[in-house]
Design a protein that fits this description.
This is UBA domain-containing protein. The protein is mostly helical. It is 51% helix and 8% strand.
């Protein structure tokens, strides 16, 4: 114990099979002998015994501190990971909300009135008291400035879609149902494309979101929230693979390649072309 007290750095209590023992001062010379607590109690002086317990307390505190730091680091890592997933889920939900909304492309104010004409005007008053005044297309939601009629009649990419238009400006009656059906079709394509770009934790988070789950059920896309859906980062999936994943596999790869060529490798544009075919 005189050696034990004189060498506070090199001679420390070691825990062996659940109990602390004092290694021999000649440990560095190869001696493996150690003194357990019972033997130490028989031979130690009061000062030596006090030092023995002080060292044990220090070792216990050190062990607890290391354990606490490890738990803290693990908690922080899990919290950061969880926070990152939560942020991705919130961002994804916001994106889906925007997909589901029918809103003015200029002031972003939602609206639900539709009289059958695809050339719309937003009359919502702005902060200055004046109306928004945006003229836009009810099909592609392009802001056309002061007049949307020419765009609807000549430029809108959807105007020639079968079963949609009657004449130059109006949708087939009942117009509201035709418009709603068309919007749901576009929402389904956009949402399906979007969901295939998400990682598994984000999709799992969305699966517990009542709003997202309800919309996916309405559009027949509930299966796209499954953790088993193969997902890759946006841009990592080839155009043909993306179109196959959206249910266009029966068309055949050659036709999908031709459509993608026409769409200049824009998958969303290719989907529109396939739906019109």
């Amino acid at each position: 114990f005189s050696q034990f007290r004189a060498q506070p750095v090199s001679v420390k209590p070691q825990k062996v099979q659940g109990s602390y023992q004092i290694a021999c001062a000649g440990l560095h010379l190869g001696c493996t002998y150690s003194i357990n607590g019972s033997l130490a109690a028989q031979h130690a002086s009061q000062a030596g015994w006090t030092e023995y317990h002080r060292r044990i307390s220090e070792r216990e505190e050190q062990s607890l501190r290391v354990e606490f730091e490890q738990r803290q680091q693990s908690f922080e890592a899990n919290f950061a990971a969880r926070s990152a997933v939560d942020n991705r889920v919130l961002a994804a939900r916001k994106e889906i909300e925007l997909m589901m909304e029918v809103a003015c492309p200029r002031c972003q104010h939602p609206f639900d009135g539709f009289d059958g004409c695809a050339a719309l005007e937003c009359t919502r008053p702005l902060a200055n008291g004046r109306p928004c005044g945006a003229h836009f297309c009810a099909l592609c939601f392009t802001d056309c400035g002061r007049n949307a009629h020419d765009h609807v009649r000549l430029e809108c990419e959807f105007r020639n879609q079968p079963g949609l238009m009657r004449g130059n400006y109006y949708l087939i009656e009942p117009a509201l149902q035709t418009w709603t059906r068309f919007l749901d079709q576009q929402r389904k394509v956009k949402l399906r494309t979007f969901l295939t770009t998400l990682d598994v934790p984000t999709r799992e988070g969305l699966h517990s979101d009542c709003f997202v789950l309800e919309k996916c059920r309405e559009l027949g896309l509930e299966g796209y929230l499954s953790a088993n859906l193969e997902s890759q980062p946006a841009g990592a999936v080839s155009g043909v693979e993306a179109l196959r994943a959206m249910g266009f596999g029966e068309v055949g790869d050659q036709k999908l390649k031709r459509v993608l060529l026409r769409a200049k490798d824009d998958v969303n544009r290719a989907v529109d072309l396939l739906l019109r075919a």
